[in-house]
Please model this.
Amino acid sequence: MKKQDLIKLATLLGLVIIAYIPTFIWMIDRWSSAETYYSHGFLVPLISGFIIWQKRKELNKLKVHPLNLGWLFFGVGITIHAISALWQVSFSSGFSLLLVLPGLVLLCLGKEFLRQLLFPIFFLIFMIPLPLVAIANISFRLKIFASQVSTAIVNRLGVAAVREGSVIKTAHSYVVVEDPCSGIRSLIALIALGALMAYFSNIPRAKKIILFFSSIPIALLSNIVRIVSVTIASEIYGSQFATGTFHDVMGILVFVLAFIGLSMTAKLLE
Model:
């Protein structure tokens, strides 16, 4: 890779960054909000950058063959961004980056570079927050599903429980499965983790796909374990105990259990 190629890419990338400043501000605001589901968003571009840095030796060996096909991706992406900015739709503006960046790579470097950079570019999708309407809809469906399954398990374990909406009632207590407990936060983060584990795993592509999609049921199951544990603890020790430190510890254990589940799945696929 020649110096002038890097300068060309850096210049165009700098102009893109300037054009997307309002979108980046929106992302950072969503990442850092009080009830965010995207606190991992700060890490995503750093992880993508690290993966690219790891590939630096391979990239330096490649020959630059710019392709005009890049204009198609770049043009469509910039058009989506312009329309999104006009209508103030930040999500579609952020999504357009996944077209603009591959377009830039094709225009400046070529398809061999894009092949090497495809994963770190598309991994950036995990930093783009979903619209709040979509989050609310998914969260509602998840908490109803989680409370249904958790109620059935609690009953199977010998503790009488009934469900009313997203409220699990036992003989002496009750647990409200609210939006933060729906599992959407862990689901979003663990899908990103599943993508990383699949990418770095030394297994065939078909098994990588299986590992990636396994992150969804693993995340859901981990959250159900948390709700079941909190429900039983609430019945035995009281709601004050279950909603205090125990609740917070179980929140952390969701990620621990999910990570163990993903690691075991990766080992089995190997």
